[in-house]
Write a sequence for this structure.
């Protein structure tokens, strides 16, 4: 079956960077979450979740992000989310007050920079 | 040689005996029986002062004596005259197993002396039987040209000589048997090595021409021949063309061709057996290939190349010197021929399959048309078995009045002919359909078309005419498996009409069409029998499996096709071609889209796709399309979450284009639960943020969400 979302991961300066292409909805958000956590080692300082290539994102995705932020905090790791400026994802994150759970950046490089400086 | 002979005493006899034994012990090790026996006989002659000594061996039946070795009168052994046991002097000794002597042959018993001895002037004879473990093996006989009385010492020498000869013969025979066995074993090992070299599995990975050349190289080496060539029968069945050659490479380079029925090759073809020509210059079989003479080929061995009892060609080897090819040579060459024939046949089938596939791909539609109100998807999977490819086809024909013709069929048979006929059928069908013929008329016309084709071809076929405006499908079937209707909430039903006979079955067939309604969002699945036929399963089981796969499939046509192929395991290694064509009645007509969808998250993506398409055809801009799609998905997600019962639950979505806005209603039949925790309930927030109006109404039967958004470009 065609995969709705495609996950592409890389490691930059001790940070896991995950690019999510395609669509995230109620049918696959939980799976995407499991995949992301599977990629994150205990040694990583944290995770940058890049939504700039995500074509569809709704409350299921928002729920996933809140959940990820909480679970990473328990592991003493940090989550940063990248959403393109004026994108639907950015609007949704603002609308749902996600900034209270984890920082939202404009670009992957600034997110990675912020995470690696911190530790 | 003169000798004291007569009157020799026992003492000197004993020392000569020792010499005899010593010399013999050394000779035994040489294992050359003839040399050994001859040496022994010469020493006996010398010791006894005799003129001739002969060993006669008895045959296996114990009936005849045959002179085997002789010293003195060589002629005796040169022209061995068999002597029956019991006849003549030696025959009598053999029969009695007792020593005997003749003192003067000119006197008494002269008649028992053989002519050869008489011719040589032999006057006296003395013979002893040769025994091994109480078994008679022969007779040792000495003769002198003078009358003589043999002494007990002479007898001792002779008996010792006989014993030594018997032992030598026994060991010699054993050694010969051992040597034979060893040679046989070596020959078998060599043979097995030869067999392995020409049947090696690794050869299968070579390209055909490389394989044939490699086989010829190996057989040339194994059989020590100078030329080898493979000639294949051309498609005309009349000509042989050289395909590969060693030592006769010009055959291939010049594109050498021979009349197939003539000469050497013709003889092989006719007899289907190996044919040997020992000498080209004195052969009753004509060799028509002039290259053979040019090259100076003298002897030839040829075998047939046979695949499934059909002759496909000839393999022959030749030598520049005269040679008698053996049965074993012919057997080995036949093995090479069988190996080559197999590869040639595989290659032919593979090439045929490739051509059939190309032909099929070229007649199947590259891309399905985009038609308002119609969702389409199709799949074609060629059979895994090379020879089974070809014959399945489908087509989508947009008709003038907005209707669409949907065809699927399966030509009986496979390979190139089936694929070619399929192409013709497709063109004929297009012509009839575009003329405006009804499905019943199309079927009758195609029947006539088939009957006009050579070779009595047959095909099953189904043709449906779908009207997106009325959702009505007019369907006709010529012995084709019934299409399956799948509703978006997962209900399935085979559209069983009274099928007519297959196209080309003869007679004056009557095809009755049937009307069925394809509810908005429903899909009609047409397929060929490769999808439901599985070895060892009944057709009805295949149909049941198809129905349950379709019921669980997402309702988007593309995803539905994938899901069905995956569920029925038809995507890989099918013994038959598989074609499927899915047509969906897109629930968007007259500005309203209505959907009934199974309450499961997998459908969300398909709903979004349909909505986007509908919104775009309703002239909404990109931002509005995204916003409305997002809000709708949120509402549908809620409906799916609220639906209770894991099965059969469904919900409805209705989208309506108003003058300047779009209104969407999502209705479920479950109960909304209060949002769990902070994370939930965001759906409503999002709906409100992206739509102008959102209201949620809950009653006993369920919940309905109504949303409205003004479109930006209509402001």
């Amino acid at each position: 079956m065609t995969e709705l979302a495609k996950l592409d991961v890389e490691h930059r300066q001790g940070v896991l960077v995950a690019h999510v292409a395609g669509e995230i909805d109620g049918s696959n958000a939980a799976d995407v979450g499991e995949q992301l956590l599977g990629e994150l080692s205990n040694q990583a300082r944290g995770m940058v979740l890049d939504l700039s290539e995500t074509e569809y994102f709704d409350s299921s995705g928002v729920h996933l992000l809140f959940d990820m932020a909480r679970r990473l905090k328990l592991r003493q790791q940090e989550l940063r989310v990248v959403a393109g400026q004026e994108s639907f994802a950015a609007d949704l994150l603002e609308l749902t007050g996600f900034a209270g759970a984890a920082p939202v950046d404009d670009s992957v490089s600034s997110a990675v920079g912020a995470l690696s400086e911190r530790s | 040689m003169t000798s004291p002979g007569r009157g020799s005493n026992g003492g000197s006899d004993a020392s000569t005996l020792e010499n005899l034994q010593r010399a013999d012990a050394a000779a035994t090790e040489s294992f050359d029986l003839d040399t050994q026996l001859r040496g022994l006989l010469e020493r006996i002659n010398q010791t006894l002062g005799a003129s001739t000594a002969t060993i006669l061996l008895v045959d296996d039946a114990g009936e005849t004596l045959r002179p085997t070795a002789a010293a003195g009168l060589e002629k005796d052994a040169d022209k061995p005259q068999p002597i029956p046991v019991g006849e003549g002097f030696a025959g009598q000794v053999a029969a009695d197993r007792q020593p005997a002597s003749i003192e003067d042959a000119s006197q008494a018993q002269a008649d028992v002396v053989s002519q050869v001895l008489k011719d040589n002037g032999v006057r006296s004879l003395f013979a002893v039987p040769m025994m091994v473990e109480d078994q008679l093996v022969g007779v040792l006989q000495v003769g002198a040209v003078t009358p003589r009385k043999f002494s007990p010492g002479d007898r001792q020498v002779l008996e010792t000589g006989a014993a030594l000869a018997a032992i030598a013969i026994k060991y010699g025979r054993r050694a010969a048997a051992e040597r034979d066995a060893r040679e046989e074993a070596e020959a078998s090992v060599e043979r097995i090595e030869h067999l392995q070299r020409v049947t090696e599995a690794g050869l299968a990975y070579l390209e055909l021409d490389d394989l044939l050349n490699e086989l010829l190289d190996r057989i040339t080496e194994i059989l020590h021949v100078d030329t080898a060539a493979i000639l294949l029968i051309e498609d005309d069945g009349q000509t042989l063309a050289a395909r590969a050659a060693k030592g006769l490479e010009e055959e291939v380079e010049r594109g050498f061709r021979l009349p197939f029925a003539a000469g050497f090759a013709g003889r092989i073809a006719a007899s289907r057996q190996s044919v040997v020509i020992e000498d080209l210059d004195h052969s009753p079989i004509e060799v028509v290939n002039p290259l053979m003479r040019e090259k100076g080929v003298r002897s030839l061995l040829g075998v047939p190349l046979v695949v499934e009892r059909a002759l496909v060609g000839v393999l022959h080897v030749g030598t520049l010197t005269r040679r008698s090819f053996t049965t074993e040579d012919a057997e080995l060459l036949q093995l090479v021929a069988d190996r080559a024939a197999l590869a040639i046949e595989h290659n032919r089938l593979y090439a045929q399959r490739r051509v059939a596939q190309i032909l099929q791909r070229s007649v199947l539609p590259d891309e399905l048309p985009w038609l308002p109100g119609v969702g389409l998807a199709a799949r074609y999977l060629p059979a895994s078995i090379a020879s089974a490819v070809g014959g399945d086809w489908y087509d989508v024909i947009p008709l003038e009045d907005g209707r669409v013709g949907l065809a699927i069929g399966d030509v009986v048979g496979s390979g190139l002919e089936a694929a070619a006929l399929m192409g013709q059928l497709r063109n004929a069908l297009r012509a009839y359909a575009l003329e405006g013929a009804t499905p019943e008329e199309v079927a009758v016309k195609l029947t006539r078309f088939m009957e006009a084709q050579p070779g009595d071809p047959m095909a099953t076929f189904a043709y449906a005419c779908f009207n997106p405006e009325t959702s009505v499908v007019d369907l006709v079937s010529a012995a084709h498996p019934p299409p399956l209707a799948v509703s978006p909430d997962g209900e399935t039903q085979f559209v069983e009409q009274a099928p007519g006979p297959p196209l080309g079955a003869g007679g004056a067939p009557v095809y009755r069409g049937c009307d069925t309604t394809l509810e908005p969002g429903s899909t009609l699945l047409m397929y060929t029998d490769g999808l439901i036929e599985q070895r060892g399963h009944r057709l009805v089981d295949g149909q049941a499996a198809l129905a349950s796969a379709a019921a669980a499939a997402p309702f988007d046509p593309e995803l539905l096709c994938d899901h069905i192929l995956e569920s029925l395991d038809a995507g890989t290694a099918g013994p038959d071609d598989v074609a499927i064509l899915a047509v969906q009645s897109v629930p968007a007509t007259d500005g309203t889209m209505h959907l009934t969808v199974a309450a499961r998250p997998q459908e969300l993506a398909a709903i979004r796709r349909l909505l986007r398409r509908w919104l775009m055809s309703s002239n909404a801009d990109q931002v509005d399309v995204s916003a409305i799609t997002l809000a709708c998905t949120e509402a549908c997600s809620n409906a799916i979450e609220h639906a209770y019962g894991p099965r059969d639950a469904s919900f409805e979505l209705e989208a309506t284009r108003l003058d300047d806005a779009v209104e969407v209603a999502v209705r479920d039949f479950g109960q909304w639960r209060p949002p769990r925790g902070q994370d939930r309930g965001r759906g409503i927030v999002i709906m409100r943020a992206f739509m102008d109006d959102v209201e949620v109404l809950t009653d006993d039967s369920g919940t309905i969400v109504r949303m409205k958004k003004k479109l930006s470009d209509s402001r």
User: Anything to note?
Assistant: Chain B touches chain A at residues 558-559, 562-563, 566, 601-602, 604-605, 608, 626, 629-630, 633-634, 637, 640-641, 679-680, 682-683, 685-686, 689 (CB under 8 Å).
